[in-house]
Recover the amino acids of this structure.
């Protein structure tokens, strides 16, 4: 491989791009160009177009990484872009056409997301959803220190209820692009059984981090980077 691919990191709901800092620092130290894509969290089709525009601006090969809802975004945004050589899913949703993240989280028992959400009504009738800071640590980031989880709860990015309920439309890129899944074995947001189902369906290379929370990329940055590096070196 003549050049290292650009690693594009796409955050999910209730977490922003700043959460990727420990991962990005390691990737940069390893010589990778890195971009953290802003994910508006307004609607799946809208968010997909925003990320796709960034991908179109990048020259050369790309490894596209998505966490949680970001997995649904990259599954659509990568379609038709020949530069995207691998997809990496971090405790992520990997929908098939017609599936929403809401439907996938309800497919298996064990998620606390429904009881964790705090709605904020917006002008025009839309609703923003947050993880209630009172349960953020226990439900979203249980394997992080209390202080770090508190800061992440404060800086979380809300998603609209419409985005989480919007079905994936059109073909999904994981059918044709090699994909890798980091499964968080102690996840209380996306049940591990749901993650395993999606990984099997996509024919992924899988690694399980036993006991890891939904923020596996924050609590286990070295393991996360190792999987991204694997994807980057195997695609050729």
């Amino acid at each position: 491989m003549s050049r290292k691919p650009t690693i594009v990191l796409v955050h999910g709901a209730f977490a922003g791009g700043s959460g990727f800092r420990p991962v990005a620092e390691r990737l940069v130290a390893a010589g990778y160009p890195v971009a953290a894509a802003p994910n508006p969290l307004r609607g799946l089709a809208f968010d997909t177009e925003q990320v796709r525009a960034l991908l179109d601006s990048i020259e050369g090969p790309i490894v596209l990484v998505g966490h949680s809802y970001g997995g649904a975004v990259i599954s659509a945004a990568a379609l038709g872009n020949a530069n995207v050589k691998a997809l990496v899913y971090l405790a992520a949703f990997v929908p098939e056409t017609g599936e929403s993240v809401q439907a996938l989280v309800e497919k298996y028992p064990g998620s606390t997301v429904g009881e964790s959400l705090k709605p904020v009504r917006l002008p025009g009738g839309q609703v923003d959803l947050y993880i209630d800071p009172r349960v953020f640590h226990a439900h979203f980031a249980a394997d992080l220190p209390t202080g770090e989880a508190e800061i992440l709860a404060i800086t979380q990015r809300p998603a609209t209820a419409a985005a989480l309920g919007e079905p994936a439309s059109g073909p999904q890129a994981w059918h044709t692009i090699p994909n890798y899944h980091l499964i968080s074995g102690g996840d209380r947001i996306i049940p591990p059984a749901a993650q395993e189902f999606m990984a099997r369906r996509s024919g992924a290379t899988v690694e399980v981090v036993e006991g890891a929370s939904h923020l596996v990329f924050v609590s286990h940055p070295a393991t996360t980077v190792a999987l991204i590096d694997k994807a980057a070196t195997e695609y050729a």
About this structure: Residues 6-234 form a domain with the Rossmann fold fold (CATH 3.40.50.1820). The beta strands are 6-10, 34-37, 62-67, 84-90, 117-121, 127-131, 159-160, 179-184, 205-209. The mean pLDDT is 96. The chain has one domain: 6-234.
